[in-house]
Amino acid sequence: MNYEDAYRIADDLEKVIAPFCVDGMTCKVGGLRRQKQDVHDIEIAAVPLSGAPRPEFGDTKVFRTQLDKAIYALEMEGRLLNGGKNGEKMKKYVVNTSHYGFETLNPFHVEFYLVTPPAQWGVELLIRTGPNSENDKFSQWCVTNRANGGALPDGYKQRHLAIWNVDQLDSKLEPRRDESPLLMPGEEDFLRFLGLPWIEPPARHARWRR
């Protein structure tokens, strides 16, 4: 899909879900944020407000968060079609492009990435924005230790879209009880930790070291 149509659809979806996110925190990620002119799908990161919505008369479903309910409402309104994935961290739907005034030959998907603890907004945003293609694995480079040619300082690991000191992780590389990841409220924080300046999304490229 061309960039302009995909951006218009993503904008519409973000306006609906923003009231159900912490401080309205949503962001287009993936190819759309990198301003690719040929967009394969829409990816949106969002920080859901905590707490389940109050059940209303006639409700037949139980929702974990208000954002879950808002996304379900988009399906009921016909803007989205069931895409087959409705997890706690990621939801995938087919966009009903006819609702937006045009048809596509192939299904066009939208993926919602829900940023919940211990995930950090800055880490998730950077990783989801990418690129992470066969030709340019920027996201992978950012979470690969410097000893292996990446940008991540040695002695740290990425787990659950957050950065941890290895001493905080057990033998299975899972966070130990009561441990908290490094605070990364914005991409600038993560880039600074990697020793990098701000990089505009379209200009992000892996710089593997040998």
Outline the structure in words:
By secondary structure, the protein is α+β, with helices and mostly antiparallel strands. It has 2 domains: 3-114, 2-Layer Sandwich (Beta Polymerase, domain 2); 121-203, Beta Polymerase, domain 3, CATH 3.30.210. Helix content is 24%, strand content 21%. The protein has helices at 3-17, 30-33, 66-76, 121-129, 138-142, 187-193; strands at 21-29, 41-48, 80-86, 90-95, 109-114, 156-159, 162-165. Strands 1-2-5-4-3 form a 5-stranded mixed β-sheet, with helices on both faces. Strands 6-7 form a two-stranded antiparallel sheet. It is globular, with a radius of gyration of 18 Å.
Chain oligomer state: single chain
Order of helices and strands: HEHEHEEEHHEEH
Q: Rg, please?
A: 18 Å
CATH class of the largest domain: Alpha Beta
Count all strands and give the number.
Answer: 7
- Which bin fits the share of residues in helices? 10-25%
Distance between the termini: 37 Å
C-alpha geometry: globular
Number of domains: 2
- What is the correct CATH architecture of the largest domain? 2-Layer Sandwich
Classified in CATH, the superfamily of the largest domain is: Beta Polymerase, domain 2
Task: Report the sheet-strand fraction.
Answer: 15-25%
Strand order of the largest sheet: 1-2-5-4-3
Structural features:
6 helices, two-stranded antiparallel ribbon, 7 strands, 5-stranded mixed β-sheet, Beta Polymerase, domain 3, Beta Polymerase, domain 2, single chain, 21% strand, 210 residues, alpha+beta
